[in-house]
Every structure is written in C-alpha cells, then in structure tokens.
Amino acid sequence: QVQLVESGGGLVQAGGSLRLSCAASGRTFNIYSMGWFRQAPGKERELVATIRWSGDTTYYADSVKGRFTSSRDNAKNTVYLQMNSLKPDDTAVYYCAANLGRGIYDAWGRGTQVTVSS
C-alpha cells in the first residue's frame, strides 16, 4: 500500500502564500499520478490539481489556475502544492491522493487545514 502525509497548512491572510507537501511512503513505485483535493464545510470535495508521477503533465481547476502550482520531487517521494494569491474561498481541508493506475484514487492522506482570512 501507499501511505500519504500532508503538511504545510496553516493560517494566512488573503493575498499570501503557502506551500503544501505530501510525503508518500510504501509502494510508491505503483503511483501513476497524484491529486490534490480540498473540502470546505458544507461543500463537496473538489479536485484542485493533478500531476503525473512521471512526466510533466499537470491539471488545475479553473478556480486556481494561475495561482496554484503542483510539483514533485521523486527522489524524496514528495509532491508539493504552491499556493499563491490565496483567497478566503480557498479555505478548506486539503488532501493529497495517489492514483495507482486503476483510474481511481486509491490512497489518501488525512488532510491539512488551510485557512485564509479576509
């Protein structure tokens, strides 16, 4: 199995930046892609960004394009989400998840809270 641990969340003022990290362990050789999700109270969980474990292909939701950037360091088995120009609407619990090649996200972290104040 793959285990994921998110870190880097916190409280930031609108317009500020945070960098989230997702450290993967276990059978990381099975990872096809990593996804970043977020869920705010009373709202559905939404996909924020994806990045292939091999190659440069990335995806970003329209709501974060131009502000968020996903990257990875395969040597460290870590994926990052750089979040700039944060807005209060970005407030949510952010999760990373691993796609192990079955077309679904098989492994999930426990999440890290991001709070953006006005």
List the defining traits of the structure above.
118 residues, mainly beta, four-stranded antiparallel sheet, 11 strands, globular
Average pLDDT score: 96
One letter per element, helices H and strands E, the order comes to EEEEEEEEEEE
Number of helices: 0
Sheet with the most strands? Answer: 7 strands, mixed
Topology:
Blueprint: E1 2-7, E2 10-13, E3 18-26, E4 33-39, E5 46-52, E6 58-60, E7 68-73, E8 78-83, E9 92-99, E10 105-108, E11 112-117
Parallel strand pairs: 2-11
Antiparallel strand pairs: 1-3, 3-8, 4-5, 4-9, 5-6, 7-8, 9-10, 9-11
Brief summary of the model shown:
By secondary structure, this protein is an all-beta fold. The chain is built from no helices and eleven strands.
What does it look like?
Helix content is 0%, strand content 56%. The chain is an all-beta fold. The strands form 2 sheets. Strands 2, 4, 5, 6, 9, 10 and 11 form a 7-stranded mixed β-sheet that branches. Strands 1-3-8-7 form a 4-stranded antiparallel β-sheet, with no helix packed on it. The chain is globular.
